[in-house]
Design a protein that fits this description.
Length: about 350
């Protein structure tokens, strides 16, 4: 079933080239004022227009169908839709039986006996992160009222890297292209432009920080904070890896260097002396910022000839993809990841 959540429930409907996409969010209490300005800000980041992003020009205007009256939640399930206005299904007319490399096409064809909507990737498309961003942004506003803030930034694209949240003195919103300096941004954009000019694509790493969480949030083992976050993150197309804190680097360290110590500050509040484990131990938050990194693969739709198969003729074929595709999904994905993080954190604390 296409449903997320233990304490709230969220489902997504629609396909990349269907009339509309949207979502249903249940479990949000009545009386909450919708902050459209903040939702719009995150949606604009996800829909950011640049030379490296798809030239599909969707406005991404969302409309609440129910559950919201006079901009206040009613306590009923919140349903909303986003119309698909700029579809060009003709670009996919020859792809019903040709399986695009590194897309979900082949698995979807087998699972749905060839009846799946393959245009633009159908229900497997990154387009479906738009409803996720609306719902997550709504919940992100509610978290901020509780002093919990979710931030994301681009840690790397190709070989161009930024400073990790783990090494920053201050964690904050870094804007539409979330990096710490113009120099970093320029190096990343050079990596993307080089790939684009070659008809290729490139991936990267997005890092997320959740600040303001109290210690003791989560559950051990199967309900661990890491488990819940990871399950949500792998629902986002292109995510292929996750690590918390220093992650795999910890495997090369000794315990004396890897361990995160505790201390009392001048006001007798408990703090950590380091955050190598990313703010989660034993499945529970420890009061430090929850920090994790996500590896995003290169966009699989590239303008280079690729070897694949035609499942109708059962022949090997060479594919030349047409259409409008991102050379790098990382900057736009950061916004969707931020929203998805807010949703899973809201769900966790609702049941804590």
């Amino acid at each position: 079933m296409n449903v997320f959540g233990n304490n709230i429930k969220f489902s997504i409907f629609g396909e990349s080239h269907s009339y509309a996409i949207g979502g249903v969010l249940d479990g949000v209490k009545a009386g909450i004022e919708i902050n459209r300005e903040k939702i719009d800000y995150l949606m604009q980041r996800r829909n950011h227009r640049a030379s490296y992003s798809t030239q599909r020009a969707e406005s991404d205007k969302y409309e609440f169908l129910c559950g919201v009256k006079d901009n206040i939640t009613t306590g009923a399930p919140i349903a909303f839709e986003i119309k698909n206005n700029d579809v060009k299904s003709s670009s996919y007319s020859d792809l019903q039986y040709v399986m695009r490399p590194s897309h979900a096409d082949f698995g979807a064809y087998i699972k749905h006996n060839g009846f799946n909507d393959f245009c633009g990737g159908g229900h497997f498309s990154g387009r479906i992160t738009a409803p996720l961003t609306v719902a997550g942004a709504l919940l992100k506003c509610e978290l901020e009222k509780q002093g919990i803030f979710v931030y994301s930034h681009i840690l790397s694209i190709g070989n161009a890297s930024d400073v990790s949240f783990l090494d920053m003195d201050k964690i904050e919103d870094l804007g539409f292209f979330p990096v710490t300096s113009n120099d970093v941004k320029d190096r990343m954009l050079t990596e993307v432009e080089n790939a684009r000019c070659e008809g290729d694509s490139i991936g990267g790493v997005v890092e997320v920080a959740v600040c303001g969480l109290n210690p003791g949030i989560g559950n051990p083992f199967f309900g661990s904070a890491e488990s819940e976050i990871s399950k949500m993150m792998f629902s986002i197309p292109a995510v292929k890896g996750i690590e918390f804190g220093k992650g795999f680097e910890l495997s090369k360290m000794r315990g004396s260097l890897a361990n995160d110590g505790y201390k009392y500050d001048d006001n007798k509040n408990v703090t950590v002396t380091s955050n190598n484990n990313g703010g989660i131990l034993g499945g529970l938050t420890n009061g430090a910022p929850v920090i994790f990194k996500l590896a995003l693969k290169p966009t699989p739709s590239i303008f280079k000839a690729q070897n694949t198969i035609n499942v109708k003729t059962k022949e090997n074929v060479v594919l030349d993809i047409k259409g409008r595709h991102d050379s790098c999904i990382v900057p736009r994905a950061a916004a969707a990841i931020e929203a998805a993080t807010a949703m899973v954190i809201y769900d966790i604390i609702s049941g804590n």
